[in-house]
Model the fold of this input.
Amino acid sequence: MAESISAAAARRIALAAQGFGSPRPAAVGTRQLTLLLQRLGVLQIDSVNVFERSHYLPAFARLGSYDKALLDRLTMTAKSPYLEYWAHVATFVPRVDWPLWRWRMADMRAKYGKPGTWVAEHPSTISFVLDELRTNGPMAASDIQHEDNRRTGPWWGLSEFKEALEHLFVFGEVVTMGRKGFERVYGLPEHALSPELLDARVDAVDAKRELVRRAVRAHGIGTAKDLADYYRLAIATTTTLLGELVDAGEVERVKVEGWKAPGFLPLGTRIPRRIETAALLSPFDPVVWERDRAERMFGFRYRIEIYTPAPKRIFGYYTLPVLVDDAIVGRIDLKSDRQAGVLRVQSAWREAHAPRGIEERLVPVLRETAAWQGLGDILVLDRGDLARDLATALGTAPLST
Done:
């Protein structure tokens, strides 16, 4: 690896590390999904399903159509090889990695369990839910039989019992055992983990070093800040550990065109000559989830507008970045209208640097997307500077908004 590389080379390295640019498999089964999950390390969870829940989208973007039930069996059953933890935010992580997170569990306990916190002020609720799990085995919060088990508000309000379970979850005193519908099922660690995992201990520094090592491998290339964000580590700690990995000959430090901070990448990384792909990215895909990195690498300023009042939205409720080859060239706001059986393109926008003809690259992507969702027609609303060209490429007329 040269001491300095171009911005384009950095983009290709990052995308290849994330699984883009390789030929898609003829069929996607458990093996292909498992290999992808191993590559990514974490799979972020989000409940918004106006189009599709986020954790299903990275596999579709990289592998193409697949049976979502296969991913459910890998991630959302009591015996699956993955469980949930606060590894980036709420994510699926390998079950065998549970000991790597003991340091974070201890940090969460110190932060959210100290005097004056909700946990400290609700000891009886904490004891009650733990007793329920000991007596009844794994349960969802809604399964707890108590007259006070109800939400305290219409949106984010949680019952006291759900609040207790969520705190115990980040403390490592309960673990997830799949989901019922999309509701977490909780159990005690001994319900879900082998004695070997329960007894395993990893020194906090060693655990963080391993996470930095994995972040470098998964991101392909990044600054210390980028790599710290992958597993939400402290930047100072990540910088120190990257220095150790450089000294150990595992990681290289390089200058990247246009970057103010140095880049780090695995020793011996090869620069792909090209990336050929066309995909829609989840708002929570690792390629774009660190917004400063997305802007630096792709010239793509991205802010999700779910929580922005409708009159103030610029691009749409749930816009997906559009990746074509090694560039993010636009964003599309999608809605799966399951009642009508159609895929709605609520808006479509091109980036200023997008080449001509990107709509032609998007047509097969959208048709595959609709089929994967079990939908028929694709309807394009006349909103955004890409909408009319996209509708024409699809052989339809844009609908007035």
The longest helix spans residues 204-219. Residues 151-157 have pLDDT under 50 and may be disordered. The chain has 16 helices and 14 strands. The two ends are 51 Å apart (CA to CA).
